[in-house]
Amino acid sequence: MARSSIIPSSLSDGLVFTAGAFLALLIFLGLYSFLSPTPIPNRLFSFSPSFSSTSSHTDDTYDPPDETFYDDPTLTYTIDKSISNWDEKRRHWLKLHPSFSGGRERILMVSGSQPYPCRSYHGDHLLLRSFKNKADYCRLHGIELFYNTALLNPSMNFFWAKIPVIRAAMLAHPEADWIWWVDSDAIFTDMEFSLPLDRYRAHNLVLHGWPELVYKKKSWCSLNAGVFLIRNCQWSFDFMDEWASMGPHSPDYEKWGKLQTSTFKDKMFPNSDDQSGLVYLILTGKGGWRDKIYLENEYYFQGYFAEIVSRLEDITERYIEEEQKGPAVLRRRHAEGVFLSYAKERNAELGKQKGADTGPTGWRRPFVTHFTGCQPCSGDRNKVYSADNCTLGMYKALNFADDQVLRIYGFRHASLVSADVQPLPFDYPRSEE
Ligand SMILES: *[C@@H]1O[C@H](CO)[C@@H](O)[C@H](O)[C@H]1NC(C)=O
């Protein structure tokens, strides 16, 4: 399907190759089982569904003339200058805008892609579908979405580009408690799952990762830097300053590359990268960042696509079986506006069934499927993946997710690889027995 051009292996190819190869090795060695996710808890919601829409309570027509950080001419959105006293500045703004505070924690999802058209044949369409997938998830969960297509700091390119964007987003959204960075090639494959924010109460940064691999194996792929939650607070500005100081914008960029390569024996390219930088900051413990970083691995906070894609059809079948034999709540039609209340009931019901695990051996839908190394836009995918692995895999994951959305609108795809859709009869899927 995708006709990708023959281009010398890029840095990011190398990056993802080792991540993929390392995971493959882990699975091969059977190490994965002790690191693998445990069943997802039945209680996935820490808030009442009546608070599901953040916008319904906020007054966006009111901005008092009182001075705030926005009126400070020395404050910059760029990464050149540090931000100080942010917690106080943010609190002051919230005090002036009371309708934006209180209720459940607010999340701003941030994602983005390059400012130019994609080189790969399917690239722009896959990005559009991926964007739609994020927009769908956000609409269903009352989350705001900022999708950026501008390179805010030209020297902070590739995987470093997100830092300037997240920083600017924190300033533009003082009402957001969390910024949720999601790579453009990460796809939500369980629309009904909500982040267990309660679990992260004492932390400021949440990543998918394995402490054993960080501390014992000192591996640069002990965590994934493509999807994370970062709290909108001073700690995060300070942390990102330090993180960015390892990037191409910094005079110490080369030094960091050498230090990372000597620290991580499995790092196979010389340049400093954001993911190694993160592991380094956790590992060395300098700055005390570690205490505020949560490494999540109990569900697919983000999951490696090669471990997921081939199972999507079976997962679909299993859901149909459970919905056929389960209670009526699993089949009842409902308005999109009350989606979360059904999601909560469905999660509780399905979670009771045997093997209801989101991990590599369970049949529950994986939350996020991340196509690391597929580079759908440039087409410069990692050589270990075929076009089918990546392009077909992405379409499958996108349709798998879209079926969960289309169901609310009364339709589903004829199959995970089909663009055709079929109307759903009343009491589906029992009516199909
Ligand atoms: C790629 O696809 C082939 C053929 O379907 C499959 O055997 C292989 O495991 C896939 N590789 C990955 C990394 O998903």
Automatic annotation (TrEMBL):
Transmembrane segments: 12-35
Superkingdom of origin: Eukaryota
Membrane topology, from the record: Single-pass type II membrane protein
GO MF entries: galactosyltransferase activity
Coiled coil: none
GO cellular component, one term: endosome
Subcellular location: Golgi apparatus membrane
Keywords for the protein's UniProt record, in alphabetical order: Glycoprotein, Glycosyltransferase, Golgi apparatus, Membrane, Signal-anchor, Transferase, Transmembrane, Transmembrane helix
Main location: Golgi
Family: Belongs to the glycosyltransferase 34 family.
Function: Probable glycosyltransferase that may be involved in the biosynthesis of xyloglucan.
Record's protein name: Galactosyl transferase GMA12/MNN10 family protein
Taxonomic lineage: Eukaryota, Viridiplantae, Streptophyta, Embryophyta, Tracheophyta
